[in-house]
Design brief:
Blueprint: H1 12-40, H2 44-49, H3 56-59, E1 95-99, H4 100-105, H5 111-115, E2 121-123, E3 139-141, E4 144-145, E5 150-152, E6 155-156, E7 168-175, E8 188-194, E9 202-212, E10 219-229, E11 239-251, E12 254-258, E13 261-270, E14 276-289, E15 295-296, E16 332-347, E17 353-372, E18 383-410, E19 413-434, E20 445-448, E21 465-488, E22 492-511, E23 519-520, E24 532-533, E25 544-566, E26 569-580, E27 606-619, E28 624-641, E29 648-668, E30 671-684, E31 703-712, E32 717-726, E33 729-730, E34 746-747, E35 750-760, E36 765-772, E37 780-783, E38 789-792, E39 797-805
Parallel strand pairs: 5-8
Antiparallel strand pairs: 1-7, 2-3, 3-4, 5-6, 7-8, 9-10, 9-39, 10-11, 11-12, 11-13, 13-14, 14-16, 15-38, 16-17, 17-18, 18-19, 18-20, 19-21, 21-22, 22-25, 23-24, 25-26, 26-27, 27-28, 28-29, 29-30, 30-31, 31-32, 32-35, 33-34, 35-36, 36-39, 37-38
Length: 806
Amino acid sequence: MERTQPVKAKRPKAIAGFSRIRVIQTAANALALCAAAQAIGTPRLAAEAAGPGGSAAADEQAIPLETVVVDGQQAGGALSSPKYTEPLLDTPQTIDVIPEKVYRQQGATTLSDVLRDTPGITFFAGEGGSADRTGGDSFYLRGFDTSNSIFIDGVRDEGAAVHDTFDLEQVEVVKGPSSENGRGGTAGYINMVTRMPEAGAFGDVQVSHGFGADGSMAVDRATLDINQPLPGGLVPGTALRLDLMEQGGGVPGREYAENNRWGVAPSLAFGLGTPTQLFLSYEHQYEHNIPDYGLPSTAVAGYAPPAAPGSPSFFSAGVDPATYYGFVDYDYEHVTNDAGEVRFDHAFQSGVRLENQARYDRSSRLVEASAASGSVAVAPAGEASIQQGIYQTLNETFSDEASLTAQFQAGAAAHSLSTGLELGREKAINPTWSTVAAGAPNPAYLVSIYDPLDFPASLPGYVPHRTGAGTGTRIDTAAAYAFDTVKLGRRWEVEGGVRADHYSIGELSVVAPSPAIPAVAASAGTATTPATAAAAAVAAVAPSRSELKSARTAASGKAGLVFKPAPSGSLYVSLDSVTRPPGASSSTNTLSTAATSADDPLLEPEKAVNYEAGVKWSLLGEHLLADMAVFRSVVTNVPAADPVTGEDDQLSNQAVTGVEFGLTGKVTRNWLVYAGYAQMEARVSGEISTNAQGLTLPLLPRESGSLWTTYQVTHDIALGAGVQYMGETERLQATQAPASTTFANQVPSFWLFNAMVSYSVSRRLSLRLNAFNLADHGYVASLNNNGYRLNPGAPRNLLLTAEYRF
């Protein structure tokens, strides 16, 4: 992205109005496309109703909730990856498959929304605008950062973007080291499965309006999903699918902040229903937001300025949780994502299947953010220090994966074999920006913590520009794997496999240093006056270049034993291991020269092992899947400084032990349940630091759980209810000594209650109302690493959706 100067965001009312108009236009166009589709194709509902022994009239008696069921013998859903050859019931690992129609009922529109009902996941706020995924989905899974383990159709996604659900078929949460994907985190990974064309004709239009009692800006959203077979095509089984989305408006519970985005995702299929199939797809998504970096932690009770009247119950005296600490006319975020995919598969008569998928992703992000900061001297009581920054990232990923799966008999053993080869290249470019002239101090603005100045007339010394510094990184990967499941009779299954990855990592850094000039806090009330600094003539300093390289071959593997006391149940034990080479811990793929960093190329890679034992049982005619697992995840080769000698070593380790329960599927024909609970405990090696003994891993909840259930009361009315519980978490990392209590060290536990009611106006038209945070509970949704700032949770808000199916 070539820019000489950032583009200012418009005032929020202008953006909001523009977005609402665009959303209405999108909805109107979507309805027009619906009419056109009905003129050229047979509606899916009519086709289903007119099946064997059926009719359109019979469809009038159908129970809408039936479409939400996870069908077939896999009550918990089915994984999309060819690396898994067995159903979830017989897979010795904790895996959650969240189907589209479950999170649609919940009103979830982003990946973060979908994952909030997954036990063991906690969200965090990035370190300023430059942080990985600050503008996207940032979370911990089982106490480990998993933001760099997000996949789309099995390919690692490097972009710092909000992942919208408008073209997703399902979301898969795989827990434990991702040995099937090579390098990765200890806790697991997230895979988003995109929609592809289907054989039948159908369409779906949704128009939503979200609003809250707090008066925050409303949210408008429109989506279209249309699938049309092309019977006149040259290849049998040709179909076209188109998904569109546009969303505009504010953020519940926050003033001025906006999330505006639109997306288009066409896809084309050839050979549906035949042994040879070809899929072509493309996705484009664009965001233009007013970013929100939350509140300074001094706004939370316990870390508060002097008392003032009118205090909300949770936050400090007089501080409204909706308060925006930024400069609305200057702050903006632009994110562009493009992805193209070609997928081919052929099924041989012998039971062998060959698949190949090539995918290219490109993501760019440019953000100017103003946020409360603790990097300057602590602001006086009753005031907050605001600083600005401009950050830019560009990520590119190319991947080609070829896989061969086969089912065959060898003597008394039945084999399910999955083998494959993968080639990939990941690139990241991060130019450095500055908002002030070369050599000038970074301005710090003091504002009232109760009433900050969001629309200053000017920003003295504001000179946004590229400094000429930055980093560029590249990772080339070549991998081969083989996984096999051997069935020994009806009761025993043995699973095992290995994967070898060769990584070549390179980083080029350009540094343009200048003398540090300390800023001194200005007097209170001078919100638009930069902090004073000692006058100094700064001489030009020539940029310096440095290059780091690392090449490693890393092995990962897994083994499992499954015992089936009955066809509907499985008992299992498993072991998974993965190696994470330097440069693989963040979406920027950066190396480091810090001896205590896992990205130092001179260090040995970190290694993670997960031990797990569990039971899975399919109940009620295989419509309900219950599972329970106990696990222990251990990371070794953790770099740290010896507390006695001060020398750096890799003798430390981190471990998480826990138990997890899950229940997914239908209790009765009209009653759907999706529930989970996890209890975990972390231990860190005493060798890390004498100050760190007894500390837990950051943002690890001892207990977390959720329940979502829907019940079809009558033919036309369905009710839903959900509850989420998140136990208390701490931000302190295992390598840190206890921090000053000036800033927040903990996130208190909280409960959230949600509800849903839907009404079928007709066979095609339905209305749905979602209510979030019914108790209007004030809570902290996420906290950044250093504890300077936090994001408050959304207050009570509603989402009204009209859906038309054709």
